[in-house]
Amino acid sequence: MTEIQAPYGSDFSFYEHALVLAAKAHRDQVRKETDIPYITHPVHVAHILALAGFDADLVNAGLLHDVIEDAGVSYAEIAETCGFKVADLVASVTEEKSRDGAKIPWEERKAAKLRRLEEGSRDTAALAAADALHNARALVSDVARLGETVWSRFNAPRDRIVWYYGEVLRLVRATRGDEPLVGDLEAAV
Q1: Residue 174 neighbours by CB under 8 Å, 6+ apart
Q2: Is 148 a catalytic residue?
Q3: 133, 184 in Cβ contact below 8 A?
Q4: CB proximity list for 150: less than 8 A, separation 6 or greater
Q5: What is the pLDDT of residues 66-109, one digit of tens each?
Q6: What average pLDDT does this structure show over 164-174?
Q7: Is 102 strand, coil or helix?
Q8: Which residue in 123, 145, 146, 151 has the fewest CB atoms around it within 10 Å?
Q9: Annotation marks residue 178 as catalytic
Q10: In Å, what is the CA distance from 157 to each residue of 133, 141, 160?
Q11: 133 and 141 in contact (C-beta within 8 Å)?
């Protein structure tokens, strides 16, 4: 049996601070309509990025990619803990969910996120791809296990969710080409 060789070997100490911040931020959260601790998602995203050979800053951003929008962690706290590059990457994929106390509709939030992805850096595209890849894989697995009722978890109908992942794939491919991460996302979508 061949052992997987991650680009960092077995030393992942470079992300200890990011992992602790993410774990504390998400400690009381679970994945939609499940009892699965939410922290599993950012850990998967970071793992996808690490195995793809991305640098420590991008792996740390994978761990922290949802802490601003879902856990109220500030940009400043991320920058202080992990540096400005990580904070900038997290901000580049952060979705604004409400404005002036009112919830922003799903379509508007996703359109804004896609515009930022289209204008973003190659690193933003990699981070968005890893996030979408884990979410799409989890969704496919949930549908296989639980059936079509899974779609009721979301704030949009199935066809719009599938459309959104297709758009993420299209924009990531435009920025990152045919890298293995893009191929993995295409297979999941």
Answers
A1: 118
A2: no
A3: yes
A4: 139, 142, 143
A5: 999 999 999 999 999 999 999 999 999 999 999 998 999 999 99
A6: 98
A7: strand
A8: 145
A9: no
A10: 19, 18, 6
A11: no
Share of the chain above pLDDT 90, in %: 81
Residue 55 makes CB contacts below 8 A (sequence gap 6+) with none
Is residue 10's pLDDT more than 70? Answer: no
Distance set, CA 22 to CA 70, 162, 187 (Å): 11, 28, 28
Alpha carbon dihedral 75, 40, 133, 62, in 10-degree steps, equals 30
Q: Which of 57, 66, 69, 167 is catalytic?
A: 69
Amino acid at 33: E
The alpha carbon of 13 is separated from its chain's Cα centroid by a whole number of angstroms, namely 21
Residue 58, number of CB atoms within 10 A of its CB: 22
Active-site annotation holder among 55, 70, 77, 186:
70
Q: Name the token pair of 77.
A: 């706290």
Phi, psi torsion values for 98, nearest 5 degrees: -145, 155
Tokens for 9? 């070997």
Q: Could you tell me the pTM of the whole model?
A: 0.91
